[in-house]
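[scheduler] slot 2 assigned
[scheduler] job type: sequence-to-structure, two independent chains
[scheduler] chain ordering preserved from manifest
[runner] begin chain α
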Amino acid sequence: MSTNRNKKLRAFALVIGMTLLLIVTPLIFGQISSTQTTRPRAATQSIPNGAKLKFKGVVINRDADTFTIRDRNRTDYQVLITDRTSIKTHGGFLRSGKKYPVTDLLRGLIVEVEGRGDAQGQLVAEKIRFDESDMRAAVTSDTRVTPVEENQARMAGQMDELYAVAAEARHEVEAVKEQVSALDDYDVSETVAVNFRVNSAVLSPEAKRQLDEFATRTANSRGFMIEVSGYTDSTGGEAKNFRLSRARADAVVQYLAVNHRIPLRRFITPMGFGKTEAVAENNTAAGRAQNRRVEVKMLLKRGMSRNAKAPATTKP
C-alpha cells in the first residue's frame, strides 16, 4: 500500500517537474535569443558649448550644413560645417595637405575633426583632415567606378574597428543606384536643364540666364541641397565624354557659387555621366543638342518651407 503511494507521489512530482521545465525553457531561450540579436545602438554625444575637441571617426550621414561622424566607440557626433572650415588631406613632409571642397565629404570617409562645441551641442568644425587613400576609397564606393567587391576586399583586410564601421557606412552607399537617392529625406523642389555647344563646357548667355532664375528660387529656402549632373551626346570617345560631362557640371557649380554666393556645402558632389541617360535620340542634330546638357535640381528637405527664414545665428 505504502509502495503504491510512493509510486504515485514520484509520478506526480515527475509531471510537475516536466511542466515547469516546459514553461521555463522558452523563457530562457527567448532571453538568450533576444540578448544575442540586440545590437548596440550608437549614442549621439552632445558637446559642451565652447569646449574644444579633436577626434577621429567615419562620416555616416551628410546633410546640408552638417554631417554625422561615428568614432571607434560607436558614439555619434553632429558636426557643423561653416565657410571658415578648413578641409584638407593630412600633410606630408612639408605639412601641407591638398585642399578639398566641402562637397567631397562623402559617407564612408574616415576623417579627423577639430573644433569647438556650440549652444546646440554640435561641433563647429575648424579643421577636417583625412588621408588621400581614404578619400579615393570613399569616392570609389560612392560613384561605383570600380566593382563593389574590390572595395569590400580592401575593407576586409583592415583589422581596426574604425575601418569596420566605415565598411558598414559604405555598404549603404553601394546599395544606392543613384547618388541623390542616399538623401532619403529630400524631395526635388526645382529643376532646370542648360545646354552646351559641341565639345564645349562654356556656359552660353541663355544658360546663365536660366541659372540666374534658378538661383533666385533658392534665395529664401532652408535645408536644401543642389544636385548637378553633366551629360554629352553620343559622339566622341567614352573617356572624353566622361571628362567633358564632368567639366560641364563643374562650370555650373562654379557659376552658381561665384555669381550667386551659394555655399559649396549646399552642393552634392557634381557628377559627369558622359553619354548615358540620353533624353533624346542621338541620330539627329536636334536630339544631340538636347543631350549636351547639365541638369540642376534643388532638393528640399521634407518638412521645410521654401520661404522659411533661417534663424539670425545660422549662416546660409
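[runner] end chain α
[runner] begin chain β
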Amino acid sequence: MVSLALAVGWRTARAQEAPGAERPSVSIDIVGCDPLLARESRRIAAIELRATLVDTAPDAAVTRVTATCRPQVVALEVVDPTTGKSLGRAVSLTEAPENGRARLLALAVAELVAASWSELQTNPKPRAPAATPLAPDAAREAARAAVAERSIELAAAIDVHLLASRDWLFGGGARAAVWISPSFFARFDALVDYAELTRAAGSVAVLMPSVSVALGMSGWMGPSLRPAISLGLRAGYVRMNGIAEGTLATPSHRQGVWLGPEVALQVTALARARIHPVLGVSAGVHLVGVRGTVNVGRDVEAAGLWGGITAAVAVR
C-alpha cells in the first residue's frame, strides 16, 4: 500500500489544565538584525511555543527573550519569571541559506524558552527557591501547558493505496493515537479505499475497508521535529466485482479477508505548533489476501508486499 494522507487532528492534554488557563506570554526583542528577519523570527517562535507575542513592555508574568545580532553569531538571553531562571546561548546563522535564517533563529529561541519551561513539568517545586519573585500561578500553568505532552490525537485521513499488482485505490478514514508516555503511543485507524481498475476485457471495481492497531515510539530532533516509528497489524475485507465488456469475459466477483503486519515511519515538523505537517512511509505484507483473476491483462492482487507514503497536516 502507498498512502497519501491529509490529517486534521487535535490532542487533549495529558494532565488537565487549570480552569481559565491561557496561552503563555512571550516578549521577543531582536536587536541589530535585518527587520524582515526579526519580524519573521518573532512570528515563527511564537507559533512554535504556542504563546502570545507581547509587543509592549513585559511584566512579571512574561517570559522575556533578547536576541542580539553580531557579525558572526546571535546572542540569545532568556529571562523567565515562570521558573526564576535566566538562560543564554549563542547561535550561528552564517551557514544557513539566507531564506532559512529567520526560521533557524526562531527555532533557537523556541528551544531555549522550552528548555526553561520544561522545568515546570520535571521539577515544579524546586528545593532551592528562586532569588527573584516567580510569575503568578496562572502564568506558570500556561507555560507548563505549552510544553506538556498530549495524550490523544484524532485525525481524518485521505488515503492512496497501492496493491501488489501496481493498481491504485483511493479513499480515507479516521485515525487515533493514544500516548502511553512521552515516548510511546498506541495508534488505531479505520480506512476505506476504492477504485475501478481498467483491463483489456473490462474493468474491476475494488472495495477495501481496513482497520489497524499499532504500537510505536517517538522522540525529538531539536525543538520541533519529532520522528516516530510504529509496528502493527492491519486487517480488512476486499470485494472485487468484474465488469465485462463485449464477449471477451463474463462478469464475476471475488471477496475475502486480508491481514498482515505493517511498519510505519513518520516525521512531524513544527510538532509544538497547533498546526503542523507530517510526512511518513510504511510497508507491509499480506499474510492472508485475495487475488482476482483477469482473463486479459494482469490479475488484481490484494496479496503480497506493499509500501506506503503519507503526507499529513495535523491540528491540535
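[runner] end chain β
[qc] chain β: Residues 1-21 have pLDDT under 50 and may be disordered.
[scheduler] slot 2 released
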